[in-house]
Amino acid sequence: MSGAPEKIPNQNSLISPTSSRFVTETINGSHRFVIQGYSLAKGLGVGKHIASEDFTVGGYKWAIYFYPDGKNVEDNSTYVSVFIALASDGTDVRALFELTLVDQSGKGKHKVHSHFDRSLESGPYTLKYRGSMWGYKRFFRRALLESSDYLKDDCLKINCTVGVVVSAIDSSSLNSIHVPDSDIGSHFGMLLENREGSDIVFNVAGEKFHAHKLVLAARSPTLRSELFEGLDSDEQEIIVSDTEPEVFKAILHFIYRDSLVEDELVASSSCSSPSVTDTLTAKLLAAADRYGLGRLRRMCESHLCKDISVNSVAEILALADRYRASELKRVCLCFAAENLAAVMRSDGFENLKENFSALQSELLKTVAGCDEDCGGGGGKSRSVWAQLSDGGDTSGRRVRQRS
User: Fold this and answer.
1) Which long-range contacts (CB under 8 A, 24 or more apart) does 104-108 make?
2) Of 35-49, 50-64, 176-190, 255-269, where does mean pLDDT reach its minimum?
């Protein structure tokens, strides 16, 4: 029986093979949670936890929950419990986890519970929704913990690593060309340093700074207006009377290089200055507002945010309000609302009450929405504020509520 002859493909018509690769990997991130005053945390209650600040890994927010009296009632506070919680919205988030209780003796004998570097029979852990947790109800026996090298100076340190599982089709080329970082700032910075082509001089308390009108005008709308609209065309020197030389030098550095000298900011914030407003960072925040430098303003906000404490928050809040630093102001309001009882006892709060009544009202509004806007925990703060707004005090006396 004969059939149709087999058709042999034309070699010239063959198409080159293509390929693709499906890659599953983890995006890893770590967070260190320091619990200072462990002995004071005991007695919080079974099932009640202390939460770390939220941290972001793989596009999701996470938090470490530490239960000083344990999570299970049946354990009768025999163990401390530690969990990692999904702190943002997500469905079926797959991840690997590692919890490490740090040995503070220097011997390196840390207590580690890890998904990493071992075979997983059932794969990564899946968190179904916001609030889902992975961890250990019986993380460590409390009596042993309190006599161990993990507790030092009444302080515990817990390291957490999260590896969020992601999958994608990898269609990138095997070869790549590295593109160097932008160096435009260094080139413009050289113009400032060697004064080449400079056409304007600023006299700041006797110290002279040579600059270029076009560069200044391109970076600052305020300087553009002053240099090209309000300045006599023959005038080559401007006297600056409202800024210190150190501050003006840092402003020019930012305008030309789009960066700040970090060492100067660190030295400024760590010195024994009597007031936050006397630091270089605070003065630069004022200058950023004066010259319309939005990025400089945000950089200063970021630095000042790190200095927020119970004693400094009122002063930094007033500073943020004065120089329209909206992000810094929001952070200060949330911090003050969450720690209101302690903040109310600070000297800065007394100054806030006397001189910044509008900010006091904004703080009241923040306290009212504290649970929703600042991460919860505002109940105690609201009760303290209620006593103040009703004319009572914080000494524990009962205050009659207005109807």
Assistant:
1) 104/149, 104/150, 104/151, 104/152, 104/155, 104/157, 105/149, 105/152, 107/149
2) 255-269
What does the pLDDT look like over 50-72, one tens digit per residue?
999 999 999 999 999 999 999 99
Contact between 87 and 61 (Cβ < 8 Å): yes
106-152 per-position pLDDT tens digit: 888 999 988 887 666 667 889 999 999 999 999 999 999 999 999 99
The CA distance from 262 to 273, in Å, is 18
**Which domains can be identified in the chain, with CATH numbers?**
23-168 (2.60.210.10), 183-298 (3.30.710.10), 308-403 (1.25.40.420)
Q: Which residue has the tokens 């059932």?
A: 122
Residues 277 and 348: beta-carbon distance below 8 Å: no
**DSSP character at residue 9:** P
* Structure tokens given for 360: 């006091």
How far, CA to CA in Å, does 133 sit from each of 82, 96, 123?
Answer: 10, 12, 16
Query: DSSP string of 55-112?
Result: EEETTEEEEEEEETT-S-GGGTT-EEEEEEEE-S--SSEEEEEEEEE--TTSS---EE
